[in-house]
Specification:
mainly alpha, 5 helices
Length: 201
């Protein structure tokens, strides 16, 4: 005898039938094969935004850059010390101590304003400029020989200022020389890496 199969009321709804109306819309499961709404479709990828490049910041203005050649640095230092010698004669009555104090900033400026390729000339020209500036301070009333003797006397008595200014110029030149060599090597490495078809050794 054929028996019919009864369905329990606790069983879930059959497949393909819509869910009861009392369920919220989020819990309703669409039947198989039904198309999903446009909210489930993936949005097209957005193109990345390209930010406009910002212009480089303007360089800060400070002391004049090193633009003097070796000859120009020597002329600048000698002329400055010669004028400062006359100024010391007029204001300080030929004070050699005041002249030595004025010699130090001239050494610093000479070492800072000489260009990178002629840096080694700065410690050479500053002692010569020191002697040039002593000419207005020596007594030339007794003739050129007396002026020459006064020049050597001034160099001997003011050797502390002479060596101090030369040492300051040498230290500044040494620091600038190291930085200049490193900058040249870095630029050479950058240019070699940017050149196509060449491999750095």
């Amino acid at each position: 005898m054929e028996q019919y199969r009864t369905r329990s009321p606790h069983d879930g709804p059959r497949r393909g039938t819509p869910p009861p109306a009392h369920l919220p819309p989020q819990a309703r499961r669409p039947p198989d094969g039904a198309e999903r709404g446009p909210s489930h479709q993936s949005a097209p990828p957005r193109a990345p935004r390209v930010r406009p490049s910002q212009p480089p910041a303007p360089a800060r203005r400070g002391l004049p850059g090193p633009r003097l050649t070796g000859l120009g640095g020597g002329l600048f230092c000698a002329l400055a010390m010669y004028l400062l010698g006359w100024l010391d004669l007029l204001l300080f009555d030929a004070s050699l101590t005041g002249y030595g104090v004025l010699f130090l900033p001239v050494c610093v400026l000479t070492a800072l304003w000489v260009r990178g390729g002629d840096l080694l000339t700065a410690p050479v020209v500053v002692p010569i400029a020191f002697g040039v500036g002593l000419f207005p301070l020596t007594d030339g009333g007794a003739g050129p020989l007396a002026r020459l003797m006064g020049l050597f006397t001034g160099l001997a008595t003011q050797a502390t200022w002479l060596y101090g200014g030369t040492l300051i110029a040498g230290v500044i030149v040494l620091v600038r020389r190291v930085r200049w060599v490193r900058e040249r090597r870095r630029r050479a490495a950058t240019d070699l890496g940017a050149t196509p078809g060449r491999n750095p050794r």
